[in-house]
Amino acid sequence: MSLLDYFRASKPKSATIAKERLQILVAHERTARSRPSYLPELQKELLEVIRKYVNVDQEAISVKFEQDDDQETLELNIVLPDFQQDNKQVNM
Amino acid sequence: MARIIVVTSGKGGVGKTTTSAAIAMGLAKKGHKTAVIDFDVGLRNLDLIMGCERRVVYDFINVINGEASLNQALIRDKNCNLLYILPASQTRDKDALTLEGVGKVLDELSKDFKYVVCDSPAGIEKGANLALYYADDAFVVTNPEISSVRDSDRMLGILASKSRRAESNAEPIKEYLLLTRYDPNRVKSGEMLGLEDVQDILSLQLLGIIPESKSVLTASNAGVPVILDEKSEAGQAYEDVVARYLGENRPHRFLDDKKGFFRKLFGGRS
């Protein structure tokens, strides 16, 4: 920090910080809201099916839902357990 | 047919009951027969703010359960004979409120009243959901404070998805913003979110800004809605809110601190 910066005293006001935090948070929560409500249930059932064959835990599965203007994408990512020292990933 | 207004916020302590009492009184004073209902079962407080706590005999739950008629439970306001209060039950469980029961009471009120104001409890549980379910208009009460703005945004999501109008694909609930406990001085010095900051996030139709005012506490101490304190800034601000809601075009006051201006003018220290 230079001496000039010290005198400039350009510390952002607390209301500005509040607004920035809010904008990020609200945008995030709004996208979460528009996601279909069946996602957690889908994730749970998928986990059950996969567990019949491979022993994976809860964190090994991620379900991502994205919405663009004209299409919706459902991305499913399963990390298979680490045998033979390399990660095998199944992407669907 | 009555117009059903829900006063909601998500967050507690932002001024829902103060606002419900004030606007119900304001509407009644303008000559519209108005009922105000407390949906906060178990933690009723509207009766205190309206100053009728000692006249409560029957309550909302009694009416829903058929233990009393609506006319027996409605309390006529002592200051305005077009205003009636329907208190919440203090002893019953929240589950006593049912969708059908609330619908039936609102239907019956609709025959006789012009406006029904539903004072929502805080939170997003049953009482809050039922308070907004049948609404035509929503007054979203927000403080210029991050947690309140976030919760208001959450409520907007619920208003848009979990109401009768949303479920029946009718015209959506009309949403209005009431920014309460506003302190123009702190906004000016960058310590408080300003109207524009809040509107950048919520972008609602603004019904009014209620300045932080000592008269709100004084009014609740006395059990008189603050709108009747015509000398107070908060009272005047609520008067404006009611007039704007009824279609009048009034400029927004209380965005600048007048005292600060005069202090500056006469060289006094703030």
Features:
heterodimer, A: 92 residues, alpha+beta, Cell Cycle, Chain A, 3 helices, elongated, B: 270 residues, alpha/beta, Rossmann fold, globular, CobQ/CobB/MinD/ParA_Nub-bd_dom (chain B), cell division (chain B), ATP-binding (chain B), septation (chain B)
Would you write up a description of this structure?
Chain A contains three helices and three strands, in the order αααβββ. With 92 residues, chain A is of the alpha+beta class. Chain A has a domain at 20-25 and 37-83: Cell Cycle, Chain A (2-Layer Sandwich). In chain A, strands 1-2-3 form a three-stranded antiparallel β-sheet, covered by helices on one side. The longest helix of chain A has 21 residues, at 14-34. The model of chain A has no long low-confidence stretch (mean pLDDT 78). With 270 residues, chain B is α/β, with parallel strands linked by helices. Chain B has a single domain (3-266), classed as P-loop containing nucleotide triphosphate hydrolases (Rossmann fold, 3-Layer(aba) Sandwich). Chain B is 41% helix and 16% strand. Chain B has 13 helices and eight strands. Chain B has an eight-stranded mixed β-sheet with strand order 3-4-2-5-1-6-7-8, with helices on both faces. In chain B, α1 (16-29) crosses α12. Chain B is globular and about 55 Å long. Classes of the chains: A alpha+beta (92), B alpha/beta (270). Chain B: One of its GO terms (biological process) is negative regulation of cell division.
Compose a concise summary of this entry:
Chain B: ATP binds at residues 11-18. The complex is a heterodimer of chains A (92) and B (270). Chain A is of the alpha+beta class and 92 residues long.
